Amino acid sequence: MITLTPAAAQEVKRLMEKEHKPNLGLRLGVKGGGCSGLSYVVALEEAVPKQFDSVFEQEGVKVLVDAKSHLYLDGTTVDYKNGLVGGGFEFLNPNAKKSCGCGSSFTA
């Protein structure tokens, strides 16, 4: 399972409201690349699961994860931090053996 903190869920809802589309969900995944080997993927898309997707709903946000990415993200907590220089989603991934300094990629 993947967990959204209340701050992450609130930010996702804010972003969805800006899009003015009623059926959006949060797509989370991983792809090859980044300075540590795997990069996180975060996108808003229609909340229609694809074949083999895992779907979680938290605080009114549907989270969709493909099967391959779920192997790397299972147990992850997604948080949102807001700072003076900008904010962003932060992944607290127990499967990451090493991550880069910016936190956007990891090695599993």
Description:
This protein is an alpha+beta fold. The protein has a single domain (3-107), classed as Hypothetical Protein Aq_1857, Chain: A. 19% of the residues lie in helices and 42% in strands. The protein has helices at residues 6-19, 67-73; strands spanning 3-4, 24-32, 38-46, 54-58, 61-65, 77-81, 88-92, 98-99, 105-107. Strands 4-5-2-3-9-8 form a 6-stranded mixed sheet. The longest helix is centred in the first third of the chain and has 14 residues, at 6-19. The chain is globular.
Assign the structural class, choosing from mainly alpha, mainly beta, alpha/beta, alpha+beta, or little secondary structure. alpha+beta
Helical content, roughly?
10-25%
Q: How far do the termini sit from each other? A: 17 Å
**Assembly status:** single chain
CATH names the topology as Hypothetical Protein Aq_1857, Chain: A
Strand fraction: 35-45%
Helix-strand topology string: EHEEEEHEEEE
Could you say what the CATH architecture is?
Answer: Sandwich
How many helices in DSSP terms?
2
Overall morphology: globular
CATH class: Mainly Beta
Low-confidence stretches: none
The count of DSSP E runs of length 2 or more, i.e. the number of strands, is 9
Mean pLDDT: 86
Largest sheet: 6 strands, mixed
Itemize the secondary structure elements and their pairings.
Layout: E1 3-4, H1 6-19, E2 24-32, E3 38-46, E4 54-58, E5 61-65, H2 67-73, E6 77-81, E7 88-92, E8 98-99, E9 105-107
Parallel strand pairs: 1-6, 2-5
Antiparallel strand pairs: 2-3, 3-9, 4-5, 6-7, 8-9
